[in-house]
Amino acid sequence: MASGALAGKTIHELRALIAQGAISPADLLDDLLARIERINPSVHAYLDIDPERLRQEAEAQLRAAPRGGRLYGIPVTIKDNICVRGEETSCASRILQGFRPPYDATVIERLRREGALILPRANMDEFAFGSSTENSAFGPTRNPRAKDLDRVPGGSSGGSAAAVAADLAIAALGSDTGGSIRQPASFCGIVGLKPTYGRVSRYGLVAFASSLDQIGPLTKDAEDAAILLSVIAGQDPRDSTSAPVEVPDYVAWLKASPKGLTIGIPALPGAEGLSQDVRAAVDQALEAFRSLGVKTVPVELSHIDKAIATYYIIATAEASSNLARYDGVQYGFRAADGAGRSLLDTYLDTRSQGFGAEAKRRILLGTYVLSQGYYDAYYLKGMRVRTLIKRDFDEAFTRCDAIVMPTAPTPAFRLGEKLSDPLEMYLSDIYTISANLAGVPALSVPCGASPDGLPIGMQLLAAPFREEVLFRMAHAYEQARRG
Amino acid sequence: MTYEPVIGLEVHLQLSTATKLFCGCPAKFGSPPNSQTCPVCLGLPGVLPVLNERVLEWGIRTALAFDCEIAQVMKFDRKQYFYPDLPKNYQISQYDQPLAQHGHLDLGLDGRTKRVRIRRIHLEEDAGKLLHEASQSQTCIDFNRTGVPLLEIVSEPDLGSSDEAYQYLVELKAVIEYLGVSTCNMEEGSLRCDTNISLRPAGDSALGSKVEIKNLNSFRAVKLALEYEAKRQAAALGRGERLPQETRLWDAKGLKTEPMRSKEEAADYRYFPEPDLVPFVIDRQLISRVGEALPELPAQRRRRYQEAHRLSAYDARVLSQHRAFGELFEGALRAGAAPKPVANWIMGELLAHLNAHGLEPEEVKLRPEWLAHLVQLVDEGTLSGKMAKDVFAQMLERGVDPLQLVEEGGLKQIVESGALERIAEAVLEANPKSVADYRKGKTNVLTYLMGQAMKRSQGKANPQQIAELLKHKLERVTP
Questions:
Q1: Is A58 exposed, middle or buried (0-12, 13-18, 19+ CB in 10 A)?
Q2: Which of these, A176, B128, B295, B355, could form a disulfide with A181 (CB 3.0-4.6 Å)?
Q3: Cβ <8 Å between B270 and A210
Q4: What's the ipTM?
């Protein structure tokens, strides 16, 4: 078989091949690692690839993997902010460089239990702060779908998305705090799911904004996303915010026809920034749904125009607190602390040198909004608006099963294009952020391309813990598109 | 002008649960540095806290003992500041929705009862410890204490003197000891306390500027610091100065308080709700279950001892100071002893022994029935008061029943009349001068003669009997 032929397949295809004995997990691993070695230097989806070490590590995992597992022999690529025991987990930040967690995140444990091989260190924006993966302290990732590799893959899970899109990964895990799975999935032309808040354990996910973060899959199709979610979802006694809600058989739900379901279509804020190509692609997708027997109704999400402002208060407040622990005392980077340097000097030097510009910007913002005298005006008000946004969704989901809107206002932009204007960068999450604030699940699925071939994604949102609705609709849509 | 102090106290108690507040690490004191840690209490990237249910239960137990209202919903908040003993650089504490509020503690003060209101009781995690002993230029951190559960009990400023503050602490400690939720050991840091004091013209209702005092490592230090501070503030006010709101440190060597930081320098802790822990709806059934299991508390015990055993208010207070005292007392009564002599042994010899050796009542090998036996031996006249004290000391030292001690040591008083008779005669024969003196009317020589008789009997004679015998012989025999 030609090199990369296996790397390009989906989990469900490979599972079948392994089950039939047509290929072995070792064949798959060889094929994938060879491709990573060849392609990664130009895409930079993975940080620090050492193929030999990766192979040894993966082979050791394979020997320990349970043969009956649902992911037996399937490599899963892990974003650099999910703790893998003994593997460097740096969040693409200098301040955590060299940090090797002594424990596995719950999602990693669950993947291993099903026989998956863990491929660590997909690139990302530092601490998941960004929408382009340009904020990685170790160099940006490039969008493999763009000719000349001149576009960003989106972010912050840009490494995970680019790896899947470039067949450098079978599937990947990312994290989504304001769109960090869905926006890169849309830019790279793959499927990305942010599950309901509380659906997947956050234990072992290095926290950005604890009340918004969720781990989710980035995959080549909806079926793979359903398979991965089935494995990683479910309550975890180590995460008090994980929900005691039963995990349905998502894969079984894929086969259910979406006929009779209703899609809600909201009026969108920021219409001036919405590209014509994206609008047209989403309209066309809605047409496809109608022909599948899905009804459409208008719904009102009257507060989502406040989502970005609300988000940048709540998310930065939590981030400023979550990142306080990076002080050079116990682990990670510590600035040189020679004679005459005080404790305060060590803190200041370590954090000044260890954090990148965007991390500093968010720590400062978050510290400010929590400060005495500003708390009520910012954080408390932000929490109130968040409640209103959540109510908008609750209300909307009494009238429809899913809401459809673009994932991002534009296809992938050029590297450097928005780097100097943080606000412009923040606006690329305008449609994804409300799902995190409301805690609802949202899935991005490819729905077309711009004239120059850049992928466009559409976003499906459902009521809390109704991920099966998303899989069912996305799968039917994929089948219809494929014709 | 006379001023009256307005005093409040904040007490931090380490709960002696087996495990820490948010992880499964042991919470034991005194283990080798960093032997009781895990990724959660070390605050490593990616970890999350999970509330120890036992801590909630013990918190409720304590709050109920102070008659607090338990919150319907409590939540945790992050208190943020940078310090190397705090691995996350924030402490998970409770800010505006604490575990419990609006309780009180009644103090029995010479015949009157003073009610001190408890403002709030909340849960929080302890920090680690910085160790400077290794070298001059380096500081080491022991994270064993990080995440150990703390209960903070905050009083209203209802205390009117350093003495009342002292009594409050004694009573609070007794209550906690009865509950069994903390070892209350200030040296090991399982009980810590800060106090605040302001002065106002006697009779006024407005409050003056509050001075907080930290670094208090004993109840005595609290008392001394408050006395010092009341004087310092009164003098300053007397000079017409305005006192700033500030935090001061107690200097236990110099016996004075020193400024630590002013109000302007106070840290902004940027409290906000802990997003990793959802607000807790406290189960009403749990509260009633914990309430039903509440033990008798010192105040109730005091009342019972006065009413049922006719003890004085003072005796009842001393006996209820420690739970173990009550157990000894009541056990000895069950074994047949009368209340007052048992109380006297506990308040006298036992307390003196504890103070002399710096022991806690639980650390003493003493069974209630032994106390009853001792009382019985004295009652029967087998042991004199002095001998009983020796027996008591040996009983504590060796952990042996007094009945056994008396048997094996031949300590029984000589009550057999023949033996006493012989001793008395021998003493009179050996001291003709004293006998003559007595007969001349100098009856105080009897004491000397008694001493001689006791000596001759090697202390085993029953003093009352020998005195009577000597007297009888001296008065009967005439020249």
A1: buried
A2: A176
A3: no
A4: 0.95
